[in-house]
Amino acid sequence: MDTFLIDTVILLALVVVLGYFNEKVTKFTHEIALMLFTVIAGGLLLVMSAALKGTGTVSQVLEELQFFNLEGFLMEGVLCFMLFAGSCHMRLLDFKKHARAISLLAVGATLLGAVFYGLIFYGAARVLGLPFTLPVCLMFGSIVAPTDPIAATSILKKFNLPPGISFIIEGESLLNDGMGVALFIFFSGMVTAAESGGFFAVMAKELLGAVAVGTVVTFVCFPIFSHTKDESRQIFTSLLAVSMSYVLCEYFGFSGAIASVVCGVLFSALRNFSEYKGRTLKLRQFDSFWEILDTLLNSVLYVMLGLSFIGILQMPHVLVLSLIAIVANLVARALSLGAASIFIGYLPDGYHRLQFIKLLTWGGLRGGLSVALAMSAQELVSDEVYLIILGGTYAIVFFTTIIQGMTMHKVYRRIQSTIVRGD
């Protein structure tokens, strides 16, 4: 029997059983529970395998425990749909109210976060004698800079955040995926400029080509989407648009991830434009479909990430480098938010700048996009550097999802108490 179906059964069984157990017993946030329990399961399997095969080396045990092809799942399967789902729901009429804050955070803070992280990690690499150049460290920064919209919004919505701050956080996390991919292309172009014919040639091909493909495909498909009366056909058309964009980009050597984000943003913009002109589209099934698909794909992804945590153990100097990666991420996130908040001006719902920075720093969870970008770096760097980048990215995703996610409620309550007191 094909292993695809077997893997699907195993993953869905874990999603359903662990999700049901969490719903009835532990009552954590869904994403946190899936990753936490699968990390524990993976650790138990590692210990049992090492005990049963006492003569085997640790590397052999780790190799045998790599159950699922996470890279194939992300890069050749679902990444385009996850990116489209994350960007096709933005309500641009609401976006206008907080356009300045969201734009500065999604663009400015993501850029500064990547740069700050790169500089911090470059300094640490110099001290430890690691073979990291500054362009590689900046590329590493772009990998861990974008926040994850699913984990962040699902956790923060439980706290009944004020509407203004809630929309800003959601808007940033939805839009900075595309910025993160663009920065990754930008800095990876610096890394490979010598071999690829120059930095600007790489940028023009990867970035501009993807934007062009995503735009053309969207404008070809959207007339069918907007004029059909069959809601199922609307869903089929959106699936066609994002998958066609991704396949064309892969064929021509452009960034399929950027094209997927472009499709999602344009679908959202054209939809909102139609509503602005007074032509309401019936999109109830469309919204439900993409919301359910996004939740399903992210649930499977978090299970796979939890089971793949043993990949961290393959990283040289695993403990020290994981701690450096985590601390550098927190410092870079806080510094970038501090710089961006200077230009935001008025913050809604009574938040002061320091309270705003604390909330978004601890609420800046990372997810599947960061892992996918880290895997994309394999062909750009040496094996040693790649393992450090992948392991450091895993460490950040696990720490932000499990530790920050589980303590987010306490952080939020503390911030709210200072707002009530007027501190």
Helix proportion: over 70%
Overall radius of gyration: 21 Å
The SSE string, one letter per element, is HHHHHHHHHHHHHHHHHH
> What characterizes the major β-sheet?
none
Stretches where pLDDT is under 50 for at least 5 consecutive residues are none
Mass-distribution shape: globular
Mean pLDDT, as a whole number? 82
Strand content: under 5%
Number of helical regions: 18
Strand elements, count: 0
State the end-to-end CA separation.
63 Å
The secondary structure category is mainly alpha
Keywords for this structure?
single chain; 423 residues; mainly alpha; 18 helices
Task: Describe the 3D structure.
The protein has helices spanning 3-26, 30-52, 58-64, 70-87, 92-95, 99-128, 134-144, 149-156, 163-191, 193-196, 199-227, 231-252, 256-276, 284-307, 318-344, 353-362, 368-376, 383-421. By secondary structure, it is an all-alpha fold. α7 (134-144) runs antiparallel to α9, α12 packs across α14 (284-307) and α16 (353-362) crosses α18. The N and C termini lie far apart (63 Å). The model has no long low-confidence stretch (mean pLDDT 82).
Q: Could you give a quick summary of the protein structure above?
A:
The chain is mainly α. It has helices at 3-26, 30-52, 58-64, 70-87, 92-95, 99-128, 134-144, 149-156, 163-191, 193-196, 199-227, 231-252, 256-276, 284-307, 318-344, 353-362, 368-376, 383-421.
